[in-house]
Write a structure and sequence with these properties.
single chain; 2 domains; five-stranded mixed sheet; Trna Endonuclease, Chain: A, domain 1; about 60% helix; about 10% strand; alpha/beta; 5 strands
Amino acid sequence: MAKSLFKLENLAMDIQAINSTLQESAAKAINKHVTARNWLIGYCIVNYEQNGEDRAKYGERILQSLASKLDNKGLSYRSLKLFRQFYAVFPSLGLSIIRFLSDNEVIGQLPIAQLKAIDNEALAIRQLTIAESQEEGYEVPPEVLFERMSYTHLVQLLPIKDSLERAFYEVECIKGVWSIAELKRQIGTNLFGRTGLSRNMNKSVILANKGAEKTDIKDVIRSPYTFEFLGLKPAEVMYEKPLESALVDHLKDFIMELGRGFCFEERQRRILIDGEYYYYDLLFYNRILHCGVIIDLKSHPFGYEDAAQMNMYLNYYKKNFMSEGDNPPVGILLCTGVGIEKVEYTTMGMDQNLLVSEYKLTLPSPEQMTAFLKKENIGRSKK
């Protein structure tokens, strides 16, 4: 019996190993295709901007015109702008990407198949010239970046101007296997600067890695960039808790029942700002007021960062979604608790169409709660 059990346990271990290994391999393969696509699109845009016949005619409007011709949500003006920036910051990824696509026999199917014919040395020299125009410093080998960092990770590094600081986060992210959220946190808390000021740099990095959140396969697969690449719905990307999801569902139904000109447009409308995705919980258009209505629901008491975020949402809507004849949008921020003074001082000087209110959940009756607590029977002996 013991021998049979041993074999079954080994079988279970083998299956787990197969499952996890191939899951990880699939996630890496998808991510490499995402990285390759976005880099190549950036390459094509830059190449056109330098050599295109009508570049003088379009000038800065090239990306807007291109996005209009493509008419694809995943290839919006802001996405194209991000891809161009991605190529500009990481030009040296080219060789790794071309080799990856060539090995997978994909490059021959692309309109830029001529890249395969380019001598590797010539391409390397061209990219080295671009890299040398940037500030000199330590550089992580491009093949390591392509193999070990997801596109979503690399996007977090784009705003960093200093190449040495960017390389620092690349190294530590790879060594620590940081999640996307962890990389953002370390950049936000200026680990680079804190490490540089520390008397013991190694100790500073070790302390920073204690309890650091590690990359999970789900993080790569559920990244908005991956879902966008695969053509899946944005709503499927969201990490909503059941309670938050139910609240948004009920809120949508409630607003629709009000009538009075409310037209539902979308739930979890995705917007891209500085390479980072944000979401409107609910987006309506009111035919009577002739304006958009953005509703954001928070499962915590009101904080100043919530008002700042809604103010950003309103300004983004004004610039990108308003049509001729529309009035400025209205933002409704609903929180579990609202401090009157905090709201007053936080929103002073902000958009006047930003409204903050408190919502309460309908809890079970006192009798039901009492019965529940009695049933739990904590601290009372059973009779």
